[in-house]
Amino acid sequence: MKIRRILATAVAAAVTTPVVFLSAAPAFADTKPTPASTQKPAAGDEDPDFDEYEKLIAAVAKAEEKLEALKAERLALLEDLRDKKVSEAVQKELDAAQKAVEDAKTAQTAAETALTAAKDALAKVEADPAATPEQKTAAAEAVTAAEAKAAEAVTAKAAADARLAKAATARDDELVAMSTRTGVLKEQIAVAEKELAAAEKALEDFETGGFGDCEEDGAVTVALSGPKTVTAGTSAVFSLRITNTTDRTLDQVQAYADAAALPDGEEPIDEDGFFKRYISVEWTGAGNPHWSPIGEDFDAIEVGELVKGGHADVKLRLTVDAKTPVGPGVAFAVGAYENNDETCGIGEDYAHAEFDILAAKTDKPKPEPKPTPSETTATPTPAPSTGGNNNTTQQGGSSNTPVNGSLAATGANENLTRLGFAAAATVALGAGAMVIARRRKAGTQA
Q: Beta partners for 221?
């Protein structure tokens, strides 16, 4: 579903305001995570989504290059047509043919002049009573030779004219072809513009999820509650209620949830700018009796149809790694929906539940300290609860299970540092999920 492709972006956007409280946590505020969608994975840890993103960027660049090349070619052709500029070979032959015609014309003129002179000389000899027969014969032979040269000049001139006509035709044919090419290029430019628009749209869809009509609204709200402490190395169950606040049935309702162990000022953020994933999350509810993991794919909690004013209750099981540092933690969730009429939306607010992560228990007995007059005995912390599919209802129904979670605050909190960490965690995990969520694209559209 399209919701899965855009939800993580909404999660990040929902906590823009609380991020200002990071100023209360200098150790964290100095760290500036880079969005996962623009990071190059380390060698041996390729991200298929990053590869797809690079391909889309390359496709846009290629489409732009193609369009610019077509426009440049057409502009150059139009200028050449204006100047009647043809290819070098055609122009060279045309120039040579024109020179050949000029040379042939000059030679023909000279031959005709020579012939006229030879005929005048013969006439004088024949009119001279003193001319010898030899003189008369020589004059006659000169006229014959001049006539031959004049005939050759006429033939050469005709050949030169034919050559020029052929060269001119080649030039005209090339100009016509260029004109035709400009028309073809005009059509190709229109196609290239559409291809570029499609490539840009594909890139925009990837970056935004592709469904800009899914707005943030309050149609689906979520409330999240759970224990205030969780011991490292154990699991704890949190309650999540998803409610349809609209006056209509929502066809497909989902929720998205995650959890993070927050840095305490000493715990470093990993090289990608995100919190280390010490906490795994699973969910169960009506229609899903087994614990299903919410992994790095940002899997959805499928509620299904939810009637007007109805709500569904599910359980989240957070398993905290034994190596998790002692400190604050946060679980958060947001709702979303999609209807058969193509309307859709994502929650304006996210719910969060804060808790403290306690040190993991050890099997090694500790030596009892010697009692002193000022020594007091600490009250043991109750063990966190674990469980399965309890207190859940049918999807789209109602429940009497009390869920006292609250939506995310957008103003000041008594513990600014913790809220800042919580907001930062949501931004970091949400930004990371923005690309990861798209890995479900193929499956959700099947």
A: 243
Residues contacting 113, CB < 8 A, separation 6+: none
Query: Collapsing DSSP states into helix, strand and coil, what is residue 362?
Result: coil
Q: 246: which residues sit within 8 A by CB, 6+ positions away?
A: 219, 308
**What is the distance in angstroms between the CA of the first residue and the CA of the last residue of the chain?**
9
- How long a stretch of residues is the chain? 446
How distant, in Å, are the alpha carbons of 26, 57, 135, 207 from that of 181? 64, 30, 68, 38
Cβ atoms of 208 and 335 closer than 8 Å: no
Quote the CA–CA distance of 353 and 225 in Å, as a whole number: 6
What distance separates the 2 farthest-apart alpha carbons in the chain? 170
DSSP 3-state assignment of 65? helix
Q: CB of 227 within 8 A of CB of 385?
A: yes
- The string of pLDDT tens digits covering residues 352-405 is 899 999 998 876 555 555 554 444 333 343 333 333 333 333 443 333 333 333
Number of other residues whose CB lies within 10 A of the CB of residue 257: 26
> How far is 161 from 153, CA to CA, in rounded Å?
12
Using DSSP's 3-state secondary structure scheme, residue 223 falls into strand
- Assess contact for 12 and 429: CB atoms under 8 A: no
CB 291 within 8 A of CB 282: yes
Q: For residue 240, what pLDDT is reported?
A: 96
**Cβ–Cβ under 8 Å, residues 292 and 282:** yes
427: pLDDT strictly greater than 60 = no
287: left (phi over 0), alpha (psi -120 to 50) or beta: left
What single letter denotes the amino acid at residue 304? G
Residue 315: closest CA among 295, 292, 338: 292
Coil, strand or helix at 282: strand
Q: Which two tokens stand for residue 298?
A: 């940002």
* 408-417 residue pLDDT tens: 333 333 343 4
What gap in Å lies between CA 23 and CA 248, rounded to an integer? 42
Three-state SS string over 325-349 comes to: CCEEEEEEEEEEEECCCCCEEEECC
Average pLDDT, the chain: 75
Gap between the Cα atoms of 223 and 221, Å rounded: 7
Distance CA 27, CA 421 (A): 10
The percent of residues above 70 in pLDDT, for the chain, comes to 64
